[in-house]
Amino acid sequence: CVAVDVQAACHEATFTQELLKEGFHRDLLVKVELGVAGEDAEGCAVAARIHLPPGIFVDPYELASLQQHNVTQAVLIPDVIDVEAPEYLATGLLVLLYLEPDPRCSHCFRAALPVHGRYHRPAEDVEEALVVLKSPEVLVCCCDNHLSAECWKPAEVESPCSGRTSSPCQWYSVRHKLVYEESILKIPVGLRQHSSLVCVVTLLVTALCSSLILRAACKYGHW
């Protein structure tokens, strides 16, 4: 790996995060531009440590499929997640998202992470719940390099430098400036005054579907 110049390393990185798409199923796009020259960034791994609130989660089965196809590399803590739990019964989630070099920029890194909104309690007079996604911590790991403690703060992250390897790595927290302080996910919620109507419609649809299934079973089934 190529050593990073200490003076260049003291320059702040630029971080942006953006929520793409609409509704419950979104993509979190993360971009980091290191404050170093392109040749100095070579050999360094970059990751974002993201704290997801209870109102948003990552599907571990979807993530496993993406990792098998080398699309997205990430570590979930905890790795067992109840994807069916509503927001008020769920807990927060820590994600270590590995960023890939951006071919359009020699010292830029980026990654996209699929995230999903959880169902919230019905509200009285609002049709959307707001889930605030704070800015994550930017981490850098440069092999065989002793970085200055004045510019780099060791991070307590027990994870390899890459999602494709298992070798231990010393991560360092990078000072960075934010383009946006936080991202806000708007999730549709039901209204409490509609509860009776929803229950009646659900009961009627369930009864209709059950009768159609029973009719088909009696007509075409073999007893």
From TrEMBL:
It is a single-pass membrane protein. It holds the Pfam family PIG-X. InterPro entries: PIG-X/PBN1, PIGX. Coiled coil: none annotated. The keyword Membrane applies. It is found in: Endoplasmic reticulum membrane. Pathway: Glycolipid biosynthesis; glycosylphosphatidylinositol-anchor biosynthesis. The keyword Transmembrane helix applies. One of its GO terms (cellular component) is endoplasmic reticulum membrane. Belongs to the PIGX family. This is Phosphatidylinositol-glycan biosynthesis class X protein. It comes from Rhinopomastus cyanomelas (Common scimitarbill). The gene is Pigx.
